[in-house]
Design a protein that fits this description.
By secondary structure, this protein is of the alpha/beta class. It contains 14 helices and 18 strands. About 45% of the residues lie in helices and about 15% in strands. It has a four-stranded parallel beta sheet with strand order 4-3-11-12, sandwiched between helices. Helix 1 links the parallel strand 3 and strand 4. Helix 10 runs antiparallel to helix 11. The longest helix has 21 residues. It is globular, with a radius of gyration of 24 Å.
Length: about 450
């Protein structure tokens, strides 16, 4: 029985999806105006582990991560670099997806981009305006938070009654309340824009996630994730506009938030010269070492990145890998210990995805195996099974099943005959069986998904 801590209710709850064994899961993606950093790496690795564990427990997870490709920061950076918004966003989207792949993060079902969903965004804003939640000013369309009575239920922030209904200045224009937020921003010089019923402009930040999550997961879905710094205002505003538009409560059943990462005890900042981009990190450490380090603390807890801490976890991982090499061809398993360990591991992960307890179970198991001088194929199989969740172990060369090899050979035959339709069909069939075929100059490369 899986229990999760729900930010919305501020307590652990038994996990019950809307549709039995099918889960809709949405995690806020990056704003693509520069390389992603190690804070992003932690968030996306942690939610990858959560997703993988849910799949390990028999759930089918439809995972969506958005790409914010139109935003104030993107516009500023594009103007600074004297390039187009699209060219800049395309460049860093490509780099971000490459980083995810390098960190062994499973591909999402979809990476929707804001600029591809302008029509859907306009439709939701139109609904909000017609229902009286949205109003038009000189510089855009705003959401009236005073009309949404549950505002603040995620973050615990309460609106001050004395400011509601007052007029406040914002960028030379007026909105009705300091807490109101932009749904649509009217066009300014050197900005991209789209036509709308209220005037040319572009979406505000918060509306994109409400629209794209519902487009691919429905008006209500199971898990919404992101780092804790998104609780307010981003996720709070998502709830307000989504539930106001659809009249469905809850918009999301479980809100999960990951703890923030610091570097040498300080908040990451370019001015402090402790800003570490993912490509920089990958030059120094293997993806498995990074994943192991990121899961060494509970997903909801803060984590400090420093050389001593990551070197310590790196050494711990090396000990585990040495053990795996020793038992891979061993012949002496303790089946009772394996069964007990698996049960304790599941119990730890079922308790709000407690990776700290889970790793404790694994290290205890290894210690007992060394003490009893045991370990064989069943021991190896258990660790291989656990690795499907964490993707941190060095399991040695993987044996590809003969069935997959036969399908790949048949696909190569179709490719030589230039029968691309049949070759594509076979690629999809191989993908459904859990393997991915990458075409290279040296022939097909097969890897487990």
């Amino acid at each position: 029985m899986i229990k999760v801590y729900n930010t919305l209710t501020r307590k652990k709850e038994i996990f019950k999806p809307f549709k039995d064994k099918k889960i809709g899961m949405y995690v806020c993606g990056p704003t693509v105006y520069g390389p992603s950093h190690i804070g992003h790496a932690r968030t996306y690795i942690l939610f990858d582990v959560i997703r993988r564990y849910l799949e390990y427990r028999g759930y089918k997870v439809k995972f969506i991560m958005n790409i914010t490709d139109i935003h104030d920061d993107i516009i500023k950076e594009a103007n600074k670099q004297k390039t187009t918004i699209k060219r800049l966003a395309d460049k860093f989207t490509k780099l971000f997806l490459k980083d995810l792949d390098s960190l062994k993060i499973k591909k999402a079902f979809k990476y929707p981009r804001v600029t591809e969903h302008i029509g859907d965004i306009i439709k939701m804003i139109d609904i909000l305006v017609k229902k009286g939640y949205g109003y038009v000013t000189e510089d855009g369309v705003y959401f009236d938070v005073s009309k949404f009575k549950d505002y603040g239920k995620l973050s615990g922030i309460k609106l001050k009654k004395e400011i509601t209904g007052t007029r406040v200045q914002t960028d030379k224009y007026e909105k009705e309340d300091v807490s109101d937020f932009a749904l649509w921003k009217f066009k300014k010089d050197n900005e991209p824009s789209w036509k709308s019923p209220w005037g040319e402009g572009r979406p505000g930040w918060h509306i994109e996630c409400s629209v794209m999550s519902q487009k691919y997961l429905g008006k209500q879905f199971d898990i919404h994730g992101g780092a804790k710094d998104l609780i307010f205002p981003h996720h709070e505003n998502e709830i307000a506009q989504s539930e106001a538009a659809t009249e469905k409560k809850p918009f999301v059943r479980y809100w999960l938030h990951s703890g923030l990462l610091t570097v040498n005890g300080q908040k990451m900042s370019k001015s402090l010269k402790n800003y570490i981009e993912i490509p920089q990190l990958l030059k120094k450490y293997k993806p498995e070492e990074i994943r192991f380090f990121m899961t060494s603390a509970h997903y909801s807890s803060p984590l400090d990145y420093n050389e001593m801490a990551i070197e310590k976890t790196k050494n711990s991982l090396e000990r585990l890998n040495n053990f795996i090499k020793e038992v891979k061809n061993g012949k002496k398993d303790d089946l009772k210990l394996i069964k007990k360990t698996k049960k304790e591991f599941i119990s730890a992960m079922d308790d709000n995805f407690d990776t700290v307890k889970a790793w404790g179970v694994i290290f205890s198991f290894v210690k007992q195996c060394y003490k009893k001088n045991i370990g064989g194929k069943k021991t190896y199989q258990l660790l291989k099974e656990i690795n499907e969740i964490f993707e941190v172990f060095d399991l040695g060369p993987e044996t590809i099943p003969q069935k997959i090899l036969s399908l790949v050979n048949q696909r190569e035959k179709y490719r030589k005959e230039k029968n691309w339709a049949k070759a594509d069909n076979l690629r999809e069939k191989i993908k459904k069986l859990g393997y991915w075929v990458e075409d290279t100059n040296k022939g097909p490369k097969i890897k487990k998904i």
